[in-house]
Amino acid sequence: MTSVETYEWLLDGFFWFTAGMGMLVAHSSNGMEAIGYDASSQTHRSRFFDNAGNAPTYQVTVRDNVWTYIGELQRATFEFSDDGNKMTTHWDSKKTDGEDWLPLCDLKVTKVK
User: Fold this and answer.
1) If DSSP states are collapsed to H, E and C, what string results for 19-34?
2) In 3D, which of 37, 24, 77 has the Cα closest to residue 47?
3) Of the candidates 78, 38, 39, which has an alpha carbon nearest to the alpha carbon of residue 59?
């Protein structure tokens, strides 16, 4: 998969916004994500939407340079380099609740200035 993604803080750093466009096998994949803080559960939440109609929600945990996403059918770990110029990501998925997690993909992202 090859993609171009943008990341930015919005509304004085209260929301983290991501938008991306890429090619996955033979079709385009376009999506956007917003991460915000849910005061009622005292956790960060992510909402993602894409052009295939997917709209998963994830609980996001941030510890040092590692962000962990946990969703109903997907989970991921994002690890940022100390200089903030690189990110590696590992995704797992399952088809239904109760199944074992299976590897989905590994991604490497490099910041382009």
Assistant:
1) EEEEEECCEEEEEEEE
2) 37
3) 38
On the question of pLDDT at 80 being above 90, the answer is yes
**Residue owning tokens 């917003």:** 34
Please tell me the distance from the alpha carbon of residue 40 to that of residue 92, in angstroms, as a whole number.
27
pLDDT of residue 1: 61
Total-model pTM: 0.82
Distance CA 19, CA 40 (A): 27
| pLDDT in the model for residue 17 | 82
Strands (DSSP E) found in the chain: 2-10, 15-24, 27-38, 43-50, 57-63, 66-71, 74-80, 86-93, 102-110
Please state, in angstroms and rounded to a whole number, the distance separating the CA atoms of residues 15 and 81: 21
**CA dist., res. 25 & res. 104, Å (int):** 14
